[in-house]
Amino acid sequence: MEKLRRSMMFVPGNNPGMLLNAGIYGADTIILDCEDAVAITEKDSARNLVFQAISEINYGTEVAVRINHISTPFGWDDLKRILPAKPDLIRLPMCQGPDEIRQIDEFISEAEQKNKFPAGSIKMMAAVETPKGLRLAYEIASASPRMVALAIGAEDFIANLKTTRSKLGRELLAARGQLVLAAREAGIQCIDTVFSDINDEEGFKKELELIKEMGFDGKSVVNPRQVSVVHDFFAPTAKEIDHAQRVLAAYQEALEKKSGVISLNGKMIDLPIVARAERTLAYAKATAGKGGK
Amino acid sequence: MKNSIGREIPEFIPGLGKVTGFGGAFARKPVGRTAGAALSTCLPRADKLLASIETAIDAVGLKDGMTISFHHHFRNGDRILNRVVEAIAKKGIRDITLSPSSLNTVNDALIPYIEQGVITAIETSGARGKMGRFLTEGHLKKPLHIRSHGGRAQAIESGAIHIDVAFLGAPACDRYGNINGIQGQSACGSLGYAIQDAAYADQVVAITDNLMPHPLFPISIPQTQVDYIVVVDSIGDPAGIASGALRYTKDPKELLIAKYAADVMDYSGYLQQDFSMQLGSGGASMAVGRFIKTKMLERGITGSFGVGGMTGVFAEMMEEGLFKMMFDVQSFDIPAIDSIKKNSNHLEMSASYYANPHNSGAIVNNLDAVILSATEVDVDFNVNVITDSNGVIMGASGGHCDTAAGAKLTIVVAPLLRGRLPMVKDAVQTVVTPGETVDAIVTERGIAINPKRLDIIDNLKNSGLPIMSIHELKDIAYKLCGKPEAIQLSDEIVGVVEYRDGTIIDVIRRPIF
């Protein structure tokens, strides 16, 4: 089972209290943010705090850093300061093409060598937030073996589309669909954008239902309260687990009987259904005891 | 002498005399008889109505050295206590012992009267704000005497507190002295903390802004106990008496702690059909209700009763049929006040019924679970709710040690860190609730179960919750924050913390500021 990234929780990189407590909510990945959550005048202090946090605090889960884009005056400095602390993952915002990924990959390789970290141990992911980035999504996803996920950043993307964000999310439908296709083709994960109205739990759940159906692996979250909601949503239900177990039992029985046709309750079962059942059970096993927060 | 939890208590405390040290939560067996009010009479057709507070002070014959009492049901909206003391001061009366059920920040206005020697002793649940700091500096003739709500009822009934005059704010009072707390502009709901005062004080003065025709209905405090009535413009500020509906916290850390606490209650086996519980009014402890409610609905179970200071959150659960009854000693918000007015299964109870250890059975003894807050806890599971990290008085004992002693499962919720300070320590500054009555400490980073509760430890084994020893929990806090420096203390005792049975569990020494 690949690394779970149901919830990727942003934490402002310049807030010591939040940095200290970021690990307690059970998010699969914590993203220490040096970009949008941090005012321009605070960029250097955020960078230093994030370095200290990664060095000193045992978060007990994957720790990512969202750096500023490398075209800004801050991106390379973020990497320079933070890579020696060995974050698990670097998240690049506003990714416009594979060259950016390759440049950062090279920079990380040098840092790994210099700090005697195993080669390739620091992973990468990229957020697509422009039509150009979306068009090049597959190239971005496959630009480096470090790449583990693509994400979509909705607010900038929608601004670029010259529309507004709606409750139903129709404006994002094409982009989300394309992003999932690109990520799947490259064999990496796909993470949905944040839902920023933290008090609208119903709207949040509707959006979770949509992205789960579309094939996303997880969601970026901005508030710790959203973590358990996401985990509940991604956990297979008892009914799904039961069905998967029965599918596999029927499959096993058919194998033993050397029967060519497999059926469960009068419905034909073919290999993709078996594969899905296996995935459901593996997922249930991986999430068991990890959804309690 | 060292008491049974190892706290150094002098046998003789200046101002209090010889004291008995705490010997265990149920060690002290009461002897003797209950005390009683002075006999009185009221002739037919006599008029209890007096013109003013000043006239009432004359009528009761208040003198130097007497003890006067008040209830704190008006919280920060109280307009009685400060006004009565002001009137007493103007009359030149000195050396008064003040015995309110609790003090709020509105009572900071009493500080000048302590400086002038009008008030020389205070017996209450706790103090906050400027008053807390002032009392920590040691300006009283006697140490501040802290009692829990159950302990205060016990002390009144046993005669350890003898109230000469109770001045009781009455939201509704008829011309012959029947009182309730649910009608009028200053309605506060339950008058639970005033019930012992009315029954045991030598004389009772009702102060009201809502004089009603006789007979009042319903009656919380009967005319047989009320000697005089004074009508004033306003006894309380509604905005300070009760907030609008108290809402669940949105703080993710408090919610996480609350979720853990609800899970502990669940896995411990106490969340069963017809269970009973009390929720503290702090953010995390109140939010436990939200998670318990979800679990009850999922499992299709209903509870028996709720206890304590009541909120609309509990009233709502009762109205939805999730609980049969509520026993209310103090109504915290407007929905709770509305509920006690309209729901016949929302009962007003006295502090003695609530929590007195020396009667034939207080309702806390019937509690399955209680969720309590804490200022700090220690590796012996002792809890402090009275002094802050500088040793300054800033809280109240309330029903903390009473419910902890009574309930089958006592869960204390607290953040592991507050700012830069660990809240699980080697030793708390002041013990209010002894560790022997605490079963679980729940923080955002881990849960510790009292090692003597092997049954709970066993039940939680496969819960997936972050269970660890209390020492491990403390170590996490110390690793993040460092070990806090000990507070430098003088030898002067500025406060004593009395356990509910009348023994001294701890003393508060004046910090060297």
From TrEMBL, chain A:
SUPFAM superfamilies: Phosphoenolpyruvate/pyruvate domain
GO molecular function: citryl-CoA lyase activity; magnesium ion binding
GO biological process, one term: oxaloacetate metabolic process
Binding site for Mg(2+): 129, 156
Gene3D superfamilies in the record: Phosphoenolpyruvate-binding domains
Domain of life: Bacteria
Keywords: Lyase, Magnesium, Metal-binding
EC number: 4.1.3.34
All copies of domain HpcH/HpaI aldolase/citrate lyase, residue ranges: 6-224
Record InterPro entries: Aldolase/citrate-lyase_domain, Citrate_lyase_beta/mcl1/mcl2, Pyrv/PenolPyrv_kinase-like_dom, Pyrv_kinase-like_dom_sf
Name of this chain's protein: Citryl-CoA lyase
Source organism: Pelosinus fermentans JBW45
Organism ancestry: Bacteria, Bacillati, Bacillota, Negativicutes, Selenomonadales
UniProtKB/TrEMBL annotation, chain B:
One of the record's GO molecular function terms: citrate (pro-3S)-lyase activity
Reaction catalysed by this enzyme: citrate + acetyl-CoA = (3S)-citryl-CoA + acetate; citrate = oxaloacetate + acetate
Annotated GO CC locations: ATP-independent citrate lyase complex; cytoplasm
UniProt EC number: 2.8.3.10, 4.1.3.6
One Pfam family this sequence matches: CitF
Subcellular location, record wording: Cytoplasm
The UniProt record lists the keyword Nucleotide-binding: no
Keywords assigned: Cytoplasm, Lyase, Transferase
GO biological process: acetyl-CoA metabolic process
InterPro entries: Citrate_lyase_asu, NagB/RpiA_transferase-like
Superkingdom as given in the UniProt entry: Bacteria
UniProt KW Membrane keyword: no
Record NCBIfam families: citF
Entry protein name: Citrate lyase alpha chain
Taxonomic source organism: Pelosinus fermentans JBW45
